[in-house]
Amino acid sequence: MLLSLVLHMRSVRCVLPAAVLLGAAPTYVLAWGAWRLLSALLPSRFYQAVDDRLYCVYQSMVLFFFENYTGVQILLYGDLPKNKENIIYLANHQSTVDWIVADILAVRQSALGHVRYVLKDGLKWLPLYGCYFSQHGGIYVKRSAKFNETQMRKKLQRYINAGTPMYLVIFPEGTRYNPELTKVISASQAFAAQEGLPVLKHVLTPRIKATHVAFDSMKDYLDAVYDVTVAFEGSVDDKGQRKEAPSMAEFLCKECPKIHIHIDRIDKKNIPEEQVSMKRWLHERFEIKDKLLIEFYDSPDPERRNKFPGESVNSKLSLKKTLPSFLILSGLTAGLLVTEAGRKLYVKTWIYGTLIGCLWVSIKA
């Protein structure tokens, strides 16, 4: 009976935040859709400025749950500038929570509304979110031979021409690192050996296409590249071996006590422009990540495990930055659901918003 109660409480920890976050999606889409129509005849920079503010409101609510609600401790290493910049954010990829980690850094620079992602193509079919991410500045890409370089360049150039603030998040590995998927890791290591590159242990071999196209398209617009390495404390098994990083659901169940985030700010003048040279540079950056993660997970000295080298800063996010967004969006959603007309509008937004969004991305994204 006690075990049943514990399991029930564990599931509630995850279900409540998930219900609020998903439940607020139609409310958010209605607000965004209204602004999209109102701004149709205005210059794109006006639309983008308000859209960025709306996105900041929603993502602040996301951070209310992923930081304040879970109580996770954020430990920052390296050099995260306090001021917002136009940047490319390159990080290792191991969990769906990696998307939230980008928000965690951006909010500390007052750049949360500027976060835009390079996403794998299949995510464009997500109900409501898939279409909106594209509208907000996200770029959907296909892997290897199907990668559409021209389309990505055109979209980035459009944002540059409009003066759109850019916090462009790229995960160069292309897929999540999972130590339990040994075939994926072996294939990645074999590819590195075939290309004459050092074999990596705790990250996959990075792919260059999206990173090169993004940098080459925005090199005169960017301020820097952020090389970000992330480790989730507690992602080891009883034998001390690395295991799969927590999913969003597991994270919301408070299964991760600390996130360690190492940031290297790299000035754009120190990054090679030619693709072959950049490919080598990018792999060298992932070699550095690999060494950091080897120290974190495998150091023979127990005192050096579960942390990155150097001093860390315990960065706590104030409720003042997240609670208002939670109250606003949950309040508006509740307001919709208490009336019959509101409930009908809410359901229609889920249904027709998803259908229209899927049609839109099938044509445009």
UniProtKB/TrEMBL annotation:
Name of protein: 1-acylglycerol-3-phosphate O-acyltransferase 5
Keyword Iron-sulfur: no
Phylogenetic placement of the source organism: Eukaryota, Metazoa, Chordata, Craniata, Vertebrata
The entry's keywords: Acyltransferase, Lipid biosynthesis, Lipid metabolism, Phospholipid biosynthesis, Phospholipid metabolism, Transferase
GO cellular component, one term: nuclear envelope
Gene Ontology molecular function: 1-acylglycerol-3-phosphate O-acyltransferase activity
Statement: the UniProt record of this protein carries the keyword Transferase: yes
InterPro entries with a match to the protein in the record: Acyltransf_C, Plipid/glycerol_acylTrfase
GO BP: any one term: hematopoietic progenitor cell differentiation
A Pfam match: Acyltransf_C
Organism: Moschus moschiferus
Family: Belongs to the 1-acyl-sn-glycerol-3-phosphate acyltransferase family.
PANTHER family the record matches: 1-ACYL-SN-GLYCEROL-3-PHOSPHATE ACYLTRANSFERASE EPSILON, 1-ACYLGLYCEROL-3-PHOSPHATE ACYLTRANSFERASE-RELATED
Domain Phospholipid/glycerol acyltransferase, residue spans: 87-212
